[in-house]
Amino acid sequence: MRDECPLSVTDNYYFLSVSSQLKPLKFAASGNIDFIIYAFFSPAMSKPVSHIPKVVFVLLIAVIIRIIPGCCDCNEPLQYFNFNTTRLTFIDNAGTYPRPMPGDTMNAAAVAIKLEMADSAGYFQYSRVLKTGFPGFSTASAWCYCPIPMKANAWLKQIKITTLYPISDEIPAGTDVSSLFVGSLEYGYYSGSSLYLTLESLCTQTNDKTYQDAGIESFLLFLKPEVAYDSARFAISLSLSDNRILNDTTSLIHIRR
To answer: Could you state, in order of their start, the residue ranges of all structural domains in the chain?
Structure first.
C-alpha cells in the first residue's frame, strides 16, 4: 500500500476566518514529513506581529498539530472473511442507467436483479471502527485514511439461476435459465471489452480478489428474453470454491407491459 498524505500537494490553502487581518495560510509540503508554513499578513496591518490576538496563535498551533501527523504509513495487514450471506434487490433497467427499483413491478423486457454477497459477521465494519477510533486533535488517524485490504477465504465458482415461473411457452417453470442472464459489476473496474459479462466471467473476477474496506461482492443480473407472462420469480444458487453453496430466492416480480 502506498503512503497517503492528503496535504502533500503544494498550494493547499486554509483560511482562518477569526481575523480579517490575516491572509490565507499556505501549507507547502516537501516529501511526506517536512512542512513549511507561510503566514501572509495584510499590508494595511499596522500592528507588529507580537500584537496579534492570542486566539489566532492558539488556532494556528491547533492547525499545525493537526497537520503534522497527517502523513502516515498505510501498510494495513490483509484481513480475511467469508461470503456467507446474500441479498437480492430489484433493479429498474427500463431507462438509460440501471437504478434501484422501489417496488416489485418491472417491464417485461427489463427484468434485472442486484445480487450482493457479504460476511454476515460484519468483521470489515468492526475492524474499521477499531482502526480509526474517534477523530480529534489527539488522534493521528483523523488525517489518515488507510483502506483495509480484504480477501475472501473462498471465491465464487458458479451462479445457477432457476425460474420458478414460466418465462415463455418454450421456457417453463423449473428451467435452468443461467445462460439467459448476463451481468455487470456494480463496483470496480473490469478489463473485459464487453459491456455485459457472462455469469462465468462474474465468477472468475472474484478469484483471489482484494476488496477495500468492505468484503462485499456486488453485481447486476439482467434477463435477456422478454417475460411472456404476468409474474416471474427466480431461485439463485451460488457455489463457492470451498464447496459451500449459498441459496436465495427473489420476491415475486410483477410484469408490466
So the answer is: 12-70, 79-256
